[in-house]
Amino acid sequence: MKKALFAILITLLIAFNTVSAADFKVAVVDLNKVMEQSPQAADISNSLKQEFQAREQDLIAKAKQLKQLEDKLTRDGAVMSAEEAKRLETDIRSRRRQLTTSRAEFREDANLRRNEAVNRLLRKVGEVVAQVGEEEGVDVIMTDGVAYFNKRVDLTATVLKRLQELHKAAK
């Protein structure tokens, strides 16, 4: 009796899932492609380059100065007085520490700003994906971890087109 009831229950569940799956629309968006090809991503990249260019050039100049001092110590250390050589070594160590600290701060600041900008873009992309999904009548949109999908369920081009339209409208 229990086996028959269990078999009927399984049959009903399979039948229900088959009917539901027929009305279920799934789509895919390649977020990596969207993030690489959207005009907003290019704007973020250009903006960050401009924002951090002066600091990067300053770090490069400081590194060159440090290298020149190290070369001077190597080249002229033998003919310098002990006091002068010690002063130069101290200056080199101090500049090396400052440069290391400055580089770390630069990387941290650049990463923080990039992450903030990328997160804003991801929120915008999520809004656009949701809008496109509603307009297309999609029940589920998958973005990551999809091993294979047919091009007919790919909404990436539609999302990119919408982002390009929003970019043009914002300018």
* Backbone CA Rg: 30 Å
What is the succession of H and E elements?
Answer: HEHHHEH
Distance between the termini: 71 Å
Low-confidence stretches: none
Give the number of DSSP strands: 2
Helical stretch count? 5
Instruction: Name the structural class.
Output: mainly alpha
Helix content: over 70%
- Sheet with most strands: 2 strands, parallel
Shape: rod-shaped
Mean pLDDT across all amino acids: 87
| β-strand amount | under 5%
Strand line-up across the major sheet: 1-2
Question: What can you tell me about this protein's structure?
Answer:
- Helix 2 packs parallel to helix 5 (156-170), helix 3 (39-76) runs antiparallel to helix 4 and helix 4 (82-136) crosses helix 5 (156-170).
- The model has no long low-confidence stretch (mean pLDDT 87).
- The protein is mainly α.
- The chain has helices at 2-22, 31-37, 39-76, 82-136, 156-170; strands at 26-28, 140-142.
- Helix content is 80%, strand content 4%.
- The protein has a two-stranded parallel sheet with strand order 1-2.
- It is built from five helices and two strands, in the order αβαααβα.
Descriptors:
171 residues, two-stranded parallel sheet, 2 strands, 4% strand, rod-shaped
Write a concise synopsis of the structure shown.
The chain is mostly helical and 171 residues long. The protein contains five helices and two strands; from the N terminus they run αβαααβα.
Q: Helix and strand layout, with pairings?
A:
Layout lengths: L1 H21 L3 E3 L2 H7 L1 H38 L5 H55 L3 E3 L13 H15 L1
Parallel strand pairs: 1-2
Helix pairs in contact: 2-5, 3-4, 4-5
